Structure formats: C-alpha cells, structure tokens
Amino acid sequence: MPVRLGDKGQSGFDEPLALLCDCHRRIERFLGVLRHAATRPCDGDLDQELRQAVVTSLEYFRTAAPRHTADEEDSLFPRLRDCTAPRGRVTLARLEQLEADHEVAAAGHAEAHALLDEWLTDGKLARPRWERLVVLLEELEVLYWRHIAIEESELYPLAAASLAREQLAAIGREMAQRRGLDPGGARHLGATTRQS
Is residue 7's pLDDT more than 50? Predict the structure, then answer.
C-alpha cells in the first residue's frame, strides 16, 4: 500500500473548484490508510509498509490538509458570502456549519494523531487507547462523508454558477501562493511534492 504525497492531480490552479475536489479524494484516501491501520492488533508494531503509509498520512493531515481548509475559509467562503445570487441564500447558510466541521475535524485529528504517534513510537497501544483511536477515526470518516457531500453537491456548484471567472482565477492564485508556488508556473497541485 505505497502512499505518496504530491501525486499529480487531475486539476490545476486554473480550476480551483475541481482542485478542491481532488483534495477531498486525498483526504478520503489518507483517512482510509489511518482507518486500515486501526484494524491491526494494537499490541504489536505496524509492519514497515503500513508504518510508512501512516507516517505519510499523518504528514498530509498536519501540513497539506490545513491549506485545504484555508483555501475554503480564506478564499472561497468569503467570496460566496459576498455573492448575491438568489439560489445561493440557502446554501450560504451552511457556511457556518462547514467552518464548525473544520474545527471538529482539527480536534479529532489532534487526538487521533497523538494516539497514532504513541503507537509508532512505542510499537503498541494499550487497548483502551486503541479503542478510542478507532472511535475517533470512525467519527472523522462520518464527518468528512457529510461535509464533502455538502461541499461537492451544493457549495462548489453554487460557486461555479455564481462567481465570476476573475474571482475563480483569484482563488486559484491564492491556493498556489498558499503552497509557496508561482500561480502561473505550477498548473497542478501535485506539480511539486508535498504540496497538496
């Protein structure tokens, strides 16, 4: 189960909404790796391949996932709040819930990652701590499933229909800059490693 950060995505910064969807696929994939690890017996160390996959997944959630949250909260959501399209009024009411989801996810990840770090360091995890890890990862999976469904079925289509081409281009530029990339020089998020 080799997992690499920086795999070339399907979309580029010139397609920021599609790029956000690509990020969702990475979130789902890396969370799946953590869930898979939690199915292993907690009284022993993870095998080398799974251990490396967990390390890579933790790195993704600590470094790249916060950039995705910033892409939404600092670039997309403010533009949607300023949008006056009649169709958007109901969907825009969801922005506060989506922002709250980001906070809940961050707290869940912090606790789960501490437990996974303990497992990686000690080579085992006490059963009550492993059971807590399983619950945390299940809760994150449910949260992401609902959260991503709302964004991809309601919010991103609203943005595509309501935001001007220049606004979408500005979001793409901000996403690139958030990753330390030249917006004109790196078409794909995966153009450099560890930039998801």
Answer: no
